[in-house]
Amino acid sequence: MALAGPARAVEYANSVLDLGVGARALGMGGAFVGLADDSTSTYWNPAGLTGIKNFEVNAAEQGQQTAALDLGTNDVGSDYIFLSGGWTLPQVGSFGLSLTRFAVNGIPQIPNQNTCGTCPPPDQKGTFGTSDTGVFLSYARSVAPALDMGVTVKTLFGGTNGLQADPTNNISGNADYYYLGLDLGFKLKFGALSPALEGLSLGLNLQDLLNTGVKWSNTPTSPDESVTANPKTGLAYTLPFAYLEDAHTVVNLALDVDPTVYAPSTLIHYGAEVWYKDTIAIRGGMMQFTDSPQSSEPSLGASFKYAILQVDYAYIYYELTPIEYLDLTIRW
């Protein structure tokens, strides 16, 4: 139901999740499974919650270019919010809770077009909206010096509002869906195995490993849509060079692979970020399909950190609708 996202839509209703979450991760092209270390890990890789030292909360807003949302005489508007929180209890583990909501309003409802070449177009029946809401509850802990594990239980629900019944289009009115799923995450830190591999980590998020499928209601057939598990994999590397440490600089490189969400194509995420004195950062990234390398979706981002506050910004160039994100994180 998302207006903008990776150039190809997946087959089930909760495809809004393919937008991703968090300005930091999105500014890196969505390459965050191996690097995840904050409360947005509830989505990217629950094992990353172990990176939270004490407590943190995060709030994000999204902006889309209104010109790209204008359809004829109808102004289509979107609303997005993402909230997350995480905390770590010594000897117990790390917990995370997130909520995301994406809604689109003002979508024109048009009856079937007349086949008569000289007939006037049908009148618009009005406008309607869609919404998707997701809630994520996660837990993670270190099971070995080199290995963290985590699990996310997520529920998604949504549908349409203001949709009028239209028998000619086989529409009975507003439709709703519900979904329950489970993700299992791992993060392997190679530096704990060998000093020569310091800074290298491998992440694996078995998205939708267990799920109920998308259950629809108030549709002509009220189907249950199947959801295929996606073993999203990420590799991250924090450059361990002494001259970077002397310059108070941290450089993170990341690569993620989505092998099944857009099958038969694979979506690759590339990302990099540079932190200076743990205060300011710049980052960039790109998403690219393996069967369409000439079509890529780049992103840029920046961060500023002061005391307990961190502000993150991301700009993502989707061909249909470029999107901006602004996050505020508080840690204590």
Short description:
By secondary structure, the chain is mainly beta. 4% of the residues lie in helices and 55% in strands. The strands form two sheets. It has a 14-stranded antiparallel β-barrel with strand order 1-4-5-6-7-8-9-12-13-14-15-16-17-18. It has a two-stranded antiparallel sheet with strand order 2-3.
What descriptors fit this protein?
Porin, two-stranded antiparallel sheet, 4% helix, 332 residues, 55% strand, mainly beta
Q: What does the model show?
A:
With about 325 residues, this protein is mainly beta. The chain has one domain (about 15-110, about 125-330): Porin (Beta Barrel). It has 3 helices and 18 strands. It has a 14-stranded antiparallel β-barrel with strand order 1-4-5-6-7-8-9-12-13-14-15-16-17-18. β16 (about 290-305) and β17 form a beta hairpin. It is globular and about 75 Å long. The model is unreliable at about 10-15 and about 65-75 (pLDDT under 50).
**Strand neighbour order, sheet with most strands:** 1-4-5-6-7-8-9-12-13-14-15-16-17-18
Biggest sheet descriptor: 14 strands, antiparallel, barrel
Poorly predicted runs of 5 or more residues: 8-13, 66-73
In the CATH scheme, the class would be Mainly Beta
The N- and C-terminal alpha carbons lie at a distance of 36 Å
CATH superfamily: Outer membrane protein transport protein (OMPP1/FadL/TodX)
- The second-level CATH architecture is Beta Barrel
What's the Cα radius of gyration? 21 Å
Report the principal-axis shape: globular
Number of helices: 3
The number of domains:
1
